[in-house]
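step 4 of 6: structure.
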Amino acid sequence: MTDAGKPPASPEWPLFEVFIRSRAGLEHKHVGSLHAADARMAIEHARDVYTRRQEGVSIWVVRSVQIIASDPEEADALFEPARDKVYRHPSFYVIPDEVKNL
Amino acid sequence: MYTQALDTHGKEPVVAAAGESAAHAARFQSRVDADEKIEPKDWMPDAYRQTLIRQISQHAHSEIVGMLPEGNWITRAPSLRRKAVLIAKVQDEGGHGMYLYSAAETLGVTRDHLFEQLLSGAAKYSSIFNYPTLTWADVGAIGWLVDGAAIMNQIPICRCSYGPYARAMVRICKEESFHQRQGFEIMLTLAQGTAAQRLMAQEALNHWWWPSVMMFGPSDADSKHTAQSMRWKIKRFSNDELRQKFIDVTVPQAHFLGLTIPDAQLRWDEATQHYIGGPIDWSEFNAVLKGNGPCNRERLQARRTAWEAGRWVREAASAHAEKLAARTTQAA
Amino acid sequence: MSRAVAAAARPDRALHEALLRYVLRLGDTSLVLGQRLGEWVGHAPTLEEDLGLANLALDLIGQARLLLTYAGEIEGRERDEDALAYLRDAPEFFNLALAEQPNGDFGCTIVRQWLMDSWQLEIYTSLQESTDSRLAAIAAKALKETRYHYRFSSGWLVRLGDGTAESHERVQRAVDELWRFTGELFAADEVDERMVAVGIAPPLSTAEAHWSARVDEDLRAASLKRPAAQPYPWHGKRGVHTEHLGYVLAEMQHLQRTYPGARW
């Protein structure tokens, strides 16, 4: 132990976002956040906090600051242009009822 | 996403210019009116943000202070089954505190900051937890009455306009459904037990009835926050509406237990199809709120002691994490 | 009771008694340790740690319930888990003395937990192969829980040992304080020998070697020193305890004692 003296008043443990796969075959889904000092602890906390009722079979944690998110102010530019491309959906095409397997 | 770190995303937080403000505010209100959810990075009036921070953090504080009166009885629970149930329940309350602090953190405050407000006495928490648990029946009564009242309060918040708060509440309500049932089961066992146990149960009901009724907050006529919170869909029912609902469902449960509600004026009103109780003594509520309840000091002191005693542990973990990161960098 | 023991136990009263004692030792150890951890709930250094410690307590109480229920069946005097937990006095408890030691600070709790977890890891791993099928099934379930407990406690041991000067000093002191109770973990007596002889329990010497290697490795990772082995005057597994157990039981048993015969 080589630390000289006490460290300065401790900063808060970093925030992690938690993603849980509820069962094999499903994707991981965001469930909430928690604080942990390190990655191993973050997994343990996620297990203790978010899987008390068998909610999961797999856990991802990621430091919250590392998530890059889209800006809601840009939502129109990002998402509106897809609105009129209805031809991307199968219901856009009119096929007579007699034709099967399409 | 549950993180305040995203609010700025490389630039200053959105501050509405004077001209924009009205337009933003109008769009915000129309989204709320249309039952759209508001998410952390969305523009929101500052007062909405502050109201949510206050309400969510109070709610979180209540959960973790609420761990104490029942936690007291973990070591004394009268059977191993009851002990396991009680640990799981008190643990859930810690979990619920966490979900709520997480939701509050999306609004741009840190949990440490909220904690400091609690420990300094600046923040409020539910007054009900300033009452003592003197017998095992008090543990049952908390589950039955206090959790019952809490569920009544919380179910409407699952539809609250703020997404992270609503999602936290959905999770909490789902988990809490066993809390009230285990409390009632304790009361039922006591009510069917020995004379001493029945007396214990009745006394617990006597202790917890009025504080539980008061948990819904001041009468609508005296509640300053209700109107704006209803417009913002942070609140969905008034204090008095929820209180009435609680009384209506709880009185028959007390009858089933063969216990007497400690309100001599309580009667069934055929016309309104409601139980009508006697007047509430708000002076007691206000006294507890002002810090003069039986356990205000003990509860805060317990939280402060835990926080102070844990400081070296939190510091050690941070220091270890830094060394770990430094070693990894060196090795690379 | 398993067929193997049922066959052997009927003619051999001593073996039957030994099995009862052996199961009580395991059950009481889990119960007393779980009870100690229960004292933490609401008072941990962070909210997340509160939930973590509560999970350990729940697992241990769960193990105690299975083991004491089984002990009651072996005994055959219609005592259930609660009769055994709540209506025996300290000399009739056979937990390891380490389990009853006070929580102290978080570092002390972690060291106690880590020592117990690494012991349970060895015992439960071997007990999975027990000729007593009931015990083997309980061990298989408990082992999964114990693996997590060990992950939790050994992780914290390293954090505290490596963390700050203060945490290092505190956790080394806890290791030094608690080490004297580790002598009991692998001290075999006639109960253990009988269990080994019929293949119910593992030889403690093998478990000790594994335990010792694991503990050394963890201490090294945490830059902590292993204290010298110390002779011990406590024989918790024989009912001779430290003064602490009496208080643990007084608190745990008070309702059952105050209202004899009441159901809760």
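step 5 of 6: annotate
 - The longest strand of chain B covers residues 267-269.
 - Confidence is low (pLDDT under 50) at residues 1-17 of chain B.
step 6 of 6: archive
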